[in-house]
Specification:
Blueprint lengths: L1 E6 L19 H14 L3 E6 L3 H11 L5 E5 L8 H8 L5 E5 L21 E4 L3 H20 L1
Parallel strand pairs: 1-2, 1-3, 3-4, 4-5
Helix pairs in contact: 1-4, 2-3
Length: about 150
């Protein structure tokens, strides 16, 4: 089983921003947690981050037929990118949207995301733990699909 986990703009700054909105764990720490979780489940994890919308879209398109599941935190692009939503809609497996903070308790413009319109499910507000939960949930989604 193989998952692609995409992180959008500024995710590389987790743990470094003064407000602490996204927690204190750094992006490399979160990546290590995710790889450990995936490894414990026997899942191959491709964990990436980009500042570039076009690169993210390319990764989503390339994942068709290559990854069993796609997890995405498009970060600020979640609220603006119809193009990422359209690319996600063409992915041939489950998609889980994840956010470190509870986007529903933040500024009104963060309450709705384009990426959620293409997602099988969404997880938000659980910090880095939400990333691990997304990996476990994705495994469950894929196992459920294979039982059908």
């Amino acid at each position: 089983m193989k998952f692609l986990f995409i992180n959008g703009p500024n995710a590389n700054l987790y743990g470094l921003e003064p407000s602490g909105t996204y927690g204190r764990e750094t992006f490399p720490d979160i990546a290590a947690r995710c790889h450990a979780k995936a490894g414990s489940l026997g899942v191959e994890l491709d964990f990436r981050q980009s500042q570039d919308e076009g690169e993210i879209i390319t990764w989503i398109q390339q994942a068709r037929g290559q990854a069993d599941g796609l997890i995405i935190n498009a970060a600020g692009l979640s609220y603006t990118s119809i193009a990422i939503m359209d690319a996600l809609l063409t992915f041939d497996g489950p998609v889980i949207e994840v956010h470190m903070s509870n986007i529903h308790r933040r500024e009104p413009f963060r309450n709705k995301t384009y990426t959620s319109k293409a997602a099988t499910g969404s997880i938000c507000g659980l910090g880095a733990l939400g990333y691990e939960i997304a990996i476990e949930a994705m495994q469950g989604q894929i196992m459920e699909r294979t039982r059908r």
